[in-house]
């Protein structure tokens, strides 16, 4: 209880201290009165009373200490003194705070993204117990989200011993028409259990119930908040209103909360009407672990149940299904990039701390006389070190405040670091809530406090020992106490150089990798090529003949547009822009192929190869005569020919792509990178649009148009050409092929840009550090330099001596950095393309750059040495 009262007394200590002083004065006055009454002279009585009482100041301090919690007062005093000291040195304070703000702000910026992607709880009920299902098939070379058929979902829903709730959903797209400009929307069919499982309810209207599924009705829809605001002006009268999706009427029954777009940018949701058919597997599942069920238990029992279900359905047991936390699936795409960026900004912060430690060491050396005086007056080493650490922590906190301000100003660009997921079947990251929340602020100030302690250790350690008293002797003692401070500064700068080498090498390797990506042959010519997507609903185009008529009419009108030199179409599978259809196939007269050999099955128009400028190796391309009445034909990629006809002879061979009838190979086209820049060219089989063996392959169409100039200038004309054939056909995902190629390089480009920026910042800090070491050495050795010059040393020799001092520190740092880069290279290998982590050219370039920077910094600082007047230096001694 006494401690509590003592703590409360801290806040009224001034009155307590005044009372103590008043009591001491009262005692002295009473003693003086008694001595005066005994006949002593008043002045002599006052002197005797003070001698008898003792050291008044010391007694006051001991009396104050008796109240407790004095350490809190000392901290407050140290903070006030530190702030006054920094205010007296504004240049030093600004330089130190700016260095720290850059380092801490960079860390806070990256942590902001880490927090949004990896740490912030998903905005769903008990989100840590939500799991989805991950499938791995070594035979097929597949690893990704698992899909189940409707009857399988029914069986999974009965596993109450594992899951308290199970929901199914499947992505869909629909054309929204009948209300102004037609629009293609991304949506999802969901089971009625999905919204309750996530713990969300519509903010307007209701969600789905089982009655919505009876009789296969499903004619109701729930809208996303963004779509409701954009197309219905947030009007509550939307409830009960009918909207048209793919020529079908749906009644709006609800609107979901803002920011909810599960699973992936959904604008609407319709009920998932289950069927008894298990021939297709399109449903994805989300489940909540039951009470008391751990993830480890689910990982043991789920594969067993999945295998048993496969055996009962007569399916081959060549896959493994395991539950995976929803958070891990959502964050998996960004985790490697965030790990790389976190390592880079961590190095920048350490470099910034080393730089500020150097500044503090120089400042401590300049304050040697002040610190020596305080030591002579009785201050302990611990007290001096505490004061210096307090100053460094104040600098760290100030840097953290500025860093938080930088993050707040840059919060919108930071959101751009979180890419939207565009992979079918994947999940978008819900970014609800403020980007700058308590985690980011707390992290920033923890880093600032830790950084303050870290870079404050060097000057604090420099106060140890008795050498500080030399500061009272003047400049003659400079050389005697310089070695420890100079050694610490040299170690810090060498560390900066080593870490800078790691960052610069990472930036160089990423840059070289990006150059390699830019030089990749795509297999087609992306310049002056425009792409636009269309989706033909079955309700409006129910058969192949209707789709072919629409397809041919659109191409005829597009080809007639001015500025269009070639045009074609492709179904699923546009390079860098579509998922494609992949599967097995067989060659007539050859043994059945292993199940893991798959090809891309692409449906294209006769003008596709010309528009894309995909070279024809031999044979012919598709022609207008390859219609639905002609014999089935196919064009294969060069990789297919090399795999199955290494000696040639593919022309005229017959292959089975989707089953009977067999297709005759009429041409061999060049290889195209279908799956991305870093993937190997995929084996592909092209089929004519008019001979598409599956109706759904004609329902999705990408128009590719080669133009004479900027492709985006004709985009509006192409949209009008499409809508002149069908006024309610929306055109979506309009982009040039160069934009799609650039998008495929967005992650390596982001990594390269950020790490290179950090590398530039690091080399600037390291250069400043080298300059500071040499300049400090010149200042400390001014007398020695003056004597050398007075004894006949040439200015060039003095200059060379000081420059070599800076280069020695750099070489030591490079030696350590060389070892560090070997470890860092392993972590960087997964981000590189056709570049080795120990690339000799990159290492040599980084070493040369650091040596050049060191030479420039050392020379700039050493020039002060040759300007030293020997007479003035000797007179100072």
List the helices and strands and how they pair.
Blueprint: H1 2-10, H2 13-37, H3 42-53, H4 56-65, H5 70-88, H6 90-119, E1 130-137, E2 142-145, H7 150-157, E3 163-177, E4 183-190, H8 194-198, E5 204-205, E6 220-223, H9 225-232, E7 242-245, E8 248-255, E9 268-271, E10 284-289, H10 295-313, E11 320-325, H11 326-331, H12 335-366, H13 368-376, H14 381-409, H15 411-416, H16 438-461, H17 482-518, E12 529-535, H18 544-559, E13 564-570, E14 581-583, E15 586-587, E16 599-604, H19 608-612, E17 616-619, E18 633-637, H20 638-644, E19 654-656, E20 663-669, E21 684-688, E22 700-707, H21 715-725, E23 732-736, H22 737-744, H23 746-780, H24 782-790, H25 795-828, H26 840-866, H27 870-876
Parallel strand pairs: 4-9, 6-8, 16-21, 18-20
Antiparallel strand pairs: 1-2, 1-10, 1-11, 3-4, 3-7, 3-10, 5-8, 6-9, 7-8, 12-22, 12-23, 13-22, 14-16, 15-19, 17-20, 18-21, 19-20
Helix pairs in contact: 2-3, 2-4, 5-14, 6-12, 6-14, 6-16, 12-16, 12-17, 12-23, 14-16, 17-23, 17-25, 17-26, 18-21, 23-25, 23-26, 24-27, 25-26
Please tell me about this protein's structure.
With 877 residues, the protein is of the alpha+beta class. It has 4 domains: 2-68, no CATH class; 141-317, no CATH class; 335-518 and 746-876, no CATH class; 541-727, no CATH class. The protein has 27 helices and 23 strands. Strands 14, 15, 16, 17, 18, 19, 20 and 21 form an 8-stranded mixed beta sheet that branches. Helix 6 packs antiparallel against helix 12 (335-366) and helix 23 (746-780) packs antiparallel against helix 25 (795-828). The protein is elongated. The protein starts with a helix and ends with a helix. Residues 1-11, 421-425 and 475-483 have low confidence and may be disordered.
């Amino acid at each position: 209880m006494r401690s509590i009262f003592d703590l409360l007394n801290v806040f009224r200590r001034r009155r307590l201290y005044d009372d103590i002083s008043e009591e001491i004065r009262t005692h002295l006055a009473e003693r003086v009165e008694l001595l005066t009454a005994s006949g002593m002279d008043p002045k002599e009585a006052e002197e005797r009373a003070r001698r008898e009482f003792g050291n008044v100041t010391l007694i006051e301090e001991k009396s104050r200490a008796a109240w407790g919690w004095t350490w809190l007062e000392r901290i407050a005093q140290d903070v006030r003194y530190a702030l006054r000291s920094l205010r007296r040195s504004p240049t030093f304070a600004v330089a130190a705070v700016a260095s720290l703000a850059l380092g801490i702000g960079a860390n806070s910026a990256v942590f902001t993204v880490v927090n949004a992607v990896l740490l912030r709880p998903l905005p769903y009920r008990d989100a840590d117990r939500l799991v989805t299902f991950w499938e791995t098939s070594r035979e097929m070379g597949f690893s990704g989200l698992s899909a189940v058929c409707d009857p399988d979902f029914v069986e999974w829903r009965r596993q109450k011993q594992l899951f308290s709730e199970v929901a199914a959903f499947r992505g869909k797209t629909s054309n929204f028409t009948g209300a102004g400009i037609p629009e293609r929307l991304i949506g999802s069919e969901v089971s009625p259990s999905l919204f309750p499982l996530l713990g969300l309810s519509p903010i307007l209207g209701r969600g789905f119930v089982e009655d919505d599924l009876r009789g296969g009705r499903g004619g109701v829809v729930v809208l996303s908040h963004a779509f409701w605001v954009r197309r219905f002006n947030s009007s509550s009268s939307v409830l009960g209103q009918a909207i048209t999706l793919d020529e079908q009427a749906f009644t709006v029954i609800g609107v979901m909360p803002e920011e909810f777009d599960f699973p992936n940018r959904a604008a609407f949701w319709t009920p998932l009407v289950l069927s008894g058919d298990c021939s297709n597997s399109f449903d994805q599942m989300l489940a909540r672990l039951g009470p008391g069920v751990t993830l480890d238990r689910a990982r043991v029992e789920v594969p067993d149940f999945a295998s048993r279900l496969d055996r009962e359905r007569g399916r081959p047991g060549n896959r493994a299904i395991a539950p995976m936390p929803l958070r891990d699936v959502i964050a998996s795409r960004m985790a490697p990039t965030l790990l790389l960026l976190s390592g880079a900004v961590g190095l920048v912060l350490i470099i910034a701390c080393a730089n500020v430690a150097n500044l503090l060491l120089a400042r401590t050396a300049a304050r040697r006389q002040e610190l020596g005086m305080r030591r002579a007056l009785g201050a302990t080493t611990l007290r001096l070190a505490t004061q210096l650490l307090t100053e460094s922590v104040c600098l760290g906190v100030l840097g953290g405040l500025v860093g938080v301000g930088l993050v707040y100003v840059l919060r919108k660009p930071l959101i751009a670091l979180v890419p939207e997921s565009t992979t079918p079947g994947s999940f978008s990251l819900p970014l609800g809530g403020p980007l700058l929340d308590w985690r980011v602020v707390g992290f920033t100030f923890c880093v600032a406090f830790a950084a303050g302690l870290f870079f404050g250790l060097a000057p604090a350690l420099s106060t140890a020992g008795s050498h500080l008293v030399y500061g009272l002797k003047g400049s003659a003692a400079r050389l005697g106490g310089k070695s420890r401070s100079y050694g610490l500064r040299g170690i810090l700068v060498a560390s900066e150089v080593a870490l800078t080498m790691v960052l610069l090498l990472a930036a160089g390797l990423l840059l070289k990798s990006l150059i390699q990506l830019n030089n990749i042959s795509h297999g087609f010519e992306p310049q002056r090529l425009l792409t636009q997507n269309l989706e033909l609903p079955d309700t409006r185009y129910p058969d192949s003949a209707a789709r072919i008529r629409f397809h041919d009419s659109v191409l005829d009108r597009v080809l007639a547009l001015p500025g269009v030199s070639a045009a074609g179409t492709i179904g699923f599978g546009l390079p860098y822009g579509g998922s494609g259809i992949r599967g097995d196939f067989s060659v007539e007269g050859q043994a059945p192929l292993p199940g893991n050999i798959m090809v891309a099955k692409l449906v294209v128009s006769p003008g596709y190869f010309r528009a894309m400028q995909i070279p024809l190796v031999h044979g012919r391309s598709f022609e207008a005569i390859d219609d639905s009445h002609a014999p089935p034909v196919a064009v294969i990629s060069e990789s297919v020919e090399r795999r199955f006809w290494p000696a040639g002879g593919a022309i005229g061979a017959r292959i089975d792509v989707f089953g009977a009838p067999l297709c005759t190979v009429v041409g061999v086209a060049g290889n195209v990178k279908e799956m991305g820049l870093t993937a190997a060219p995929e084996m592909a089989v092209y089929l004519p649009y008019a001979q598409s063996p599956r109706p759904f392959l004609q329902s999705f169409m990408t128009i590719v148009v080669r133009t004479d100039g900027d492709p985006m200038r004709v985009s509006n004309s192409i949209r009008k050409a499409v809508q002149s054939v069908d006024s309610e056909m929306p055109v979506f995902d309009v982009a040039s092929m160069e934009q799609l190629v650039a998008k495929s390089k967005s992650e390596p480009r982001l990594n390269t840009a950020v790490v290179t920026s950090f590398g530039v910042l690091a080399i600037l800090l390291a250069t400043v550090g080298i300059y500071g070491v040499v300049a400090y050495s010149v200042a400390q050795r001014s007398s020695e330099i003056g004597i050398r010059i007075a004894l006949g040393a040439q200015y060039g020799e003095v200059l060379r001596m000081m420059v070599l001092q800076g280069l020695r520190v750099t070489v030591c740092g490079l030696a350590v950095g060389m070892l560090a880069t070997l470890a860092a290279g392993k972590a960087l290998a997964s981000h590189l393309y056709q570049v080795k982590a120990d690339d000799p050219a990159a290492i040599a370039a980084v070493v040369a750059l650091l040596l050049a920077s060191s030479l420039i910094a050392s020379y700039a600082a050493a020039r002060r040495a040759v300007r030293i007047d020997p007479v003035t230096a000797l007179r100072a001694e």
